[in-house]
Predict the 3D structure of the following.
Amino acid sequence: MVKILLRSIYTKFATNILDRPGRLLALLIFLLLLILPITKPTHFFLMVMVNAFTMATFAASWDLLVGRCGQISLGHGLFFGIGAYITALLCHYQGLPIYVTIPIAVLIGALIAVPVGLPALRLKGPYLSLTSMALPLIVLGLVLTARDITYGEEGIGPNARFFPTLGWYQQWVGEYFLALIILLISASIIYKIANSRTGIVFVSILDDELASKACGINVTKYKLMAFVISAVFASLAGAYVAHSLTTGTRASPTGTLGLTVSFLPVIFTALGGIGTIYGPIAGAFIVTILDQYILGREVMNIPIAWHPITYIIPVILVLILWPRGIARYATDELEDLQEERLLEERGRWIWRRKRVK
């Protein structure tokens, strides 16, 4: 019985992972990230990686909405900020623990996505983009106005930490693994949704909305569904940031509701490859590590004001060379290698069959 079970597990692993170079590469990268803390990196490098994991979760949520459903939102930072501020407010004023405040923040983010999404998703093209871009600015104005509650520009904090009983370095390691697990679970769920029957409907709406309506698909329902799912994971990323050491366990207006926050997933997705889910994750890793670590004080020590100019130039060059994104280009190359390997295996099989005859 055990032998049959192990054989079944190996068969599924070989079919779904080993025989697919892209997935095998993703597995190897995940294992590398899993054992990385064993090398005892500096706490600054761990901070950069936690930021990369969080931004990757945020970017993947944006790609589900834009890359799969075609709803170009430039204000996705709204839900990132809602997640951060809701959990911070509950923690600061109600004294609730993290494992209660974060799920509540995610739920509220999903509920707010419904009234926000219904009117916004009836818009198309630049009108939707401009409308969505205005939403986080409105909430930002409310946060700065209600200084007695939100503490204005200073932000709410310090909030509860994830691992307060551990030492300083051990807290960074704990946050590293927690952010990695959140990214893995979020990306797996988003990828599963994107490749399910619901994801096929999303793509049909992206390709031809009128044809989808003619086939009897409730377009507004599926658009709203994509909007809510995307808001859930964006709120989760924001809620994590509000309790992370990377922000000093603080929810600040510029760090969670600024326009820069809303533009980051656009940059990550354009660099990695839109409509792939894994592309924005790769883009978030590349830009975050390049911006905060390589250009930062531990490597090149370039003044922070020059960072955007320094990393935007290679991003533009990459987009010129590979317009579909660097991650999509890499997976296309791996698929070509897979086809060649399959042809070689088929050739040897045919030769052996002829030889037996």
Residues 326-356 form the longest helix (31 residues). Residues 345-357 have pLDDT under 50 and may be disordered. Residues 44-248 form one domain. The radius of gyration is 22 Å.
